[in-house]
Design goal:
Mean pLDDT: 89
Low-confidence stretches: none
Structural class: alpha+beta
Largest sheet: 6 strands, antiparallel
């Protein structure tokens, strides 16, 4: 089970802004969206008929599936993209989508790269329908932590829920548990700096994803 803790704040959209929340994620906090009406933007969202994942090798596939278990249901290929064109076309033909527009994205996993100290990437090959416009609020990181929480944390917090109150962040502090060989004191110090001392209600968002 992978765990990522984020401290987000709303941000102005620019050429490097790719991360956003859909407005329906704020259904329980309409005041937050009202406060940041001036930052609401639009993105085109495609619904995929079919998606194929291409991993460069099996070890990379296993690492990605550990942090993205929902990928286990998607068709995949192993190897170099340029060597798999025939197999990709065969998979598209089997689903009768060869005429649909094709999008190929190279996706780098920055979190795994930090852990392994090497480039970790895979490709997403998708066949798209007509896009729909989605209203979103872009955001940027103000704090981040990889893992470092005990098992009870998963019972008391909700995966991918947005928390807007500092009380929830202070509560999360009590679940800190360093990995073997790490210092709890350093973990507590880092968490305070990344999530507590700089948390501003009405601006900050705390999110745990696993």
């Amino acid at each position: 089970m992978g765990l990522d803790l984020h401290h987000y704040i709303p941000a102005i959209k620019d050429d490097e802004s790719f991360d956003y929340f859909a407005l329906d994620e704020f259904i329980n906090n309409p005041d937050f969206i009202q406060r940041y009406q001036h930052l609401i933007g639009e993105v085109e969202q495609f619904e995929h008929y079919h998606e194929i994942l291409v991993f460069p090798d099996l070890p990379t596939k296993e690492m990605i599936l550990q942090t993205h278990p929902h990928y286990s249901d998607k068709p995949f290929l192993i190897g170099q993209l340029e060597d798999l064109k025939e197999q990709i076309n065969q998979m598209a033909s089997a689903n009768s989508i060869t005429e649909n527009e094709l999008t190929i994205l190279k996706i780098e996993d920055n979190l795994l790269e930090k852990d392994t100290l090497k480039e970790i990437f895979y490709y997403s090959i998708s066949y798209e329908t007509n896009p729909k416009v989605l209203k979103v609020l872009f955001h940027t990181d103000k704090g981040y932590q990889r893992k470092g929480m005990n098992n009870k944390f998963y019972e008391d917090f909700i995966n991918d829920k947005l928390y807007f109150d500092k009380a929830s962040v202070l509560k999360a502090y009590d679940y800190l548990e360093p990995r073997a060989g790490d210092s709890k004191e350093e973990l507590q110090k880092s968490f305070k700096a990344q999530f507590i001392d700089n948390f501003i209600e009405g601006e900050s968002i705390f999110l745990a994803s696993w």
